Amino acid sequence: MDNYRSKYPNLFKEAYWPWGPIRARFKLGDHEPRRDKIANVNIVPYIGEKWVLLRLEDSSCEIPGGTIEPNETYLDTLRRELMEEVGARLISFHIIGAWHCQSLGDKPYRPHLPFPEFYRLVGMGEIREEQSPLNPPDGEKVVTVQYMTIAEAVNGFVKSGRPDLAEVYELAAYFKADRGLV
């Protein structure tokens, strides 16, 4: 574990996300946290050797995923978010870890979500592009879905000020190669 911490220091250091406000710490692991504690899910998607990332209206890069809706499983959420944000279908999903989050707010983001402690599950997986992103009016505005090498994806996140997401992509690429995934 210490090897991962030293190789991916931005991913494993405590994060403060002002939009919550939330304190979060990434925990490596291929098992899911308690399902009733999962509030969000993200995927580092790939198609063959290309990695997928989102370019938003403000030109920042983002990882696909989002908040679990009432009565959704995290896989249902992934499928919905991939269609909304990427226009793609989920082929496979492998958990690589989760951000263990502590809300500093006075109420949950949405009433059905766990509070004040919850997890943002993170995995990697193969997807298949099927259509243009749906871009629902209440979601983040995806301007471009980009398919690139891992080095280009990492560079995009670093330039967007998200070295933690750059390292999530690097970690996913390492596991993909290590596990011999397509």
Question: What does this protein look like?
Answer:
- The chain has one domain: Nucleoside Triphosphate Pyrophosphohydrolase.
- The protein has 5 helices and 10 strands; from the N terminus they run H-H-E-E-E-E-E-E-H-E-E-E-E-H-H.
- It has helices spanning 2-7, 9-12, 74-85, 150-159, 163-179, and strands at 15-17, 22-28, 38-47, 50-56, 61-62, 65-67, 88-90, 94-103, 117-129, 142-148.
- Strand 3 and strand 4 (50-56) form a beta hairpin.
- Helix 4 (150-159) runs antiparallel to helix 5.
**Helical amount:** 25-40%
User: Number of helix segments?
Assistant: 5
**How many domains, in number, for the residues?**
1
Oligomeric category: single chain
Rg from alpha-carbon coordinates: 15 Å
CATH class: Alpha Beta
In what range is the share of β-strand residues? 35-45%
CATH structural architecture: Alpha-Beta Complex
Shape: globular
**CATH fold topology:** Nucleoside Triphosphate Pyrophosphohydrolase
**Class by helix and strand content?**
alpha+beta
* Strands, total number: 10
Low-confidence stretches: none
Mean pLDDT: 95
Report the order of strands and helices. HHEEEEEEHEEEEHH
How far apart are the first and last residues' alpha carbons, in Å?
Answer: 25 Å
The largest sheet is: 10 strands, mixed
